TrEMBL record:
It comes from the Bacteria. Residues 12-33, 161-218 are annotated as: Disordered. The chain crosses the membrane at residues 59-77. Keywords: Membrane, Transmembrane, Transmembrane helix. NCBIfam families: CU044_5270_fam. It comes from Streptomyces fuscus. This is CU044_5270 family protein.
Length: 358
């Protein structure tokens, strides 16, 4: 399971820089929702420092669920639950999902696929495919000398990619946030804060990093036959069986240099429709957009982890992800229900230069 580590680190706020040169400043103007969330993190009462019980290093979130979506909840060591009123980590609230009525999930997704399949292909005018994403992520380490440490870094990532694999990527990182300011050094020593300021890079032909690692390049081109596409998906280790993320990653990769064929988007939805254990709901994203939420869940040690991919109901494009934890918090010190990772696409389109936005 290979993930692009830069994308992993690049998601915790709603930055929107609609004006000015994208190479200037940090582009970290926050939406009211993001501002409230970050302010709550800054003002949260520092939790009591706790020391993990002696135990072997282990993954705490269940098989295949350490890496989720486009971001990671990096869980290291054996975390212990602190005082009930002073959790070690703070997260924004989870999305409210409203199950679709009148149709089972497979029938709803099949109908959705038929609508998408009838769409006209998008024009590919312009040299570069532009995309802009944001979200939240929390990194936690439980094997530091001072006990459990946490850090979150606000970031927005913009990409300009040409068909020959050249382009530009710009990531703007906000000030790191520490639920317990005393753990500043522990969090840094544990590698929880890796980037700061603005990282702006240009790439020559074939050099632009693949959005989800190199695996998808060996599978493409992708089939528009759902049965063949399902077999192609199994050639890449997509989250230990979480096919919602396999579809998300595949469509993200397919759309990195241009529009995705409506037939491929429809085929991806039909792959989801044929998968048992998938649920479908409607929701509103963190920026107020309507979306169709396709989820899979895993129950582990008395808790449930819900993995969700959001789709644009008009186009069938994936527009975000969420990983949420319900029930028992396991040994991850968060108040449940808890959002562990959040991503959302803020914009996409074609432009002629790497200095433009659509």
């Amino acid at each position: 399971m290979k993930r692009d580590t830069e994308r992993v680190r690049a998601l915790l706020t709603a930055a929107n820089d609609p004006a000015g040169d994208p190479g200037e400043g940090t582009g970290s103007l926050l939406t009211p929702h993001a501002q409230r969330t970050l302010q709550a993190l800054r003002e949260a009462r520092p939790p009591r420092r706790v020391r993990p019980r002696p135990a072997r290093r282990q993954v705490l979130l269940g098989a295949g669920l350490v890496t989720v979506g486009v971001a990671v909840v990096a869980v290291r060591g054996d975390l212990v639950q602190g005082d009930a009123g002073a959790p070690v980590a703070y997260t924004p609230p989870v999305l409210s999902l409203h199950p679709v009525e009148g149709k089972p999930a497979y029938a709803y997704l099949q109908a959705f696929a038929r609508r998408v399949e009838r769409l006209e292909p998008e024009p590919a005018h312009g040299t570069y495919q532009y995309s802009k994403t944001w979200g939240w992520w929390l990194h936690t380490a439980g094997d530091v000398p001072g006990g459990v440490a946490n850090a979150a870094v606000p970031t927005v990532t913009e990409s300009w990619v040409a068909e020959d694999g050249s382009g530009r990527q710009r990531s703007a990182y906000g000030e790191p946030l520490y639920p317990n300011p005393e753990q500043h050094k522990d969090a840094q020593d544990a590698g929880l804060v890796a980037d700061a300021g603005v990282k702006d890079r240009n790439f020559g032909p074939g050099e632009f990093p693949a959005p989800e690692g190199d695996d998808w390049g060996g599978v493409a081109p992708f089939s528009t036959d759902p049965r063949v596409l399902a077999r192609q998906l199994t050639e890449v280790n997509w989250e230990g069986g979480m096919i919602v993320y396999g579809v998300y990653d595949m469509l993200t990769y397919a759309g990195r240099t241009g529009p995705v064929d409506p037939r491929l988007r429809a085929a991806a939805l039909r792959v989801l429709a044929d998968r048992t254990g998938v649920t479908v709901a409607t929701t509103t994203t963190w920026n107020g957009r309507s979306a169709i939420a396709v989820s899979q869940s895993e129950t582990y040690d008395g808790s449930r982890q819900r993995e969700t991919v959001l789709f644009d109901p008009e186009t069938g494009y994936p527009v975000g992800t969420e990983s949420a934890l319900f029930g028992h918090a396991r040994r991850l010190n968060v108040s449940v229900p808890a959002t562990l990772t959040v991503t959302e696409t803020l914009g996409r389109g074609r432009v002629s230069t790497t200095r433009e936005r659509p």
